[in-house]
Amino acid sequence: MTPVWIGYSISDGSVANEVCYWRDMTFLPHFLRLLTKRSIRARVVYGQPVQGEKDRKCLARIFHARVSAMAETSRGRLSFAIRSKNTAC
Known about the structure:
The chain is about 40% helix and about 15% strand. It has one domain. It has about 90 residues and is α+β, with helices and mostly antiparallel strands. The two termini are about 15 Å apart. The protein has a two-stranded antiparallel ribbon with strand order 1-2. The radius of gyration is 16 Å and the shape is elongated. The chain contains four helices and two strands, in the order βααβαα. The longest helix has 19 residues, at about 55-75.
């Protein structure tokens, strides 16, 4: 399995409110508002595959740490999770 982080950016508005579909949003109004955006950029970052771990809770912790680190690095900041690559369960 491979951790993946996807980040979005738009020139006008809020990514959290106008690109991401979450909370108690109603789909159709959200989708129609999304179609009014001039451009939406996505950045996809792939991490190193995780092999050998079978415990799903441990995998969740590993993936959470790695995806959080990818997000921090992609935003231009160095995070602790990147410096400590070996995330133990």
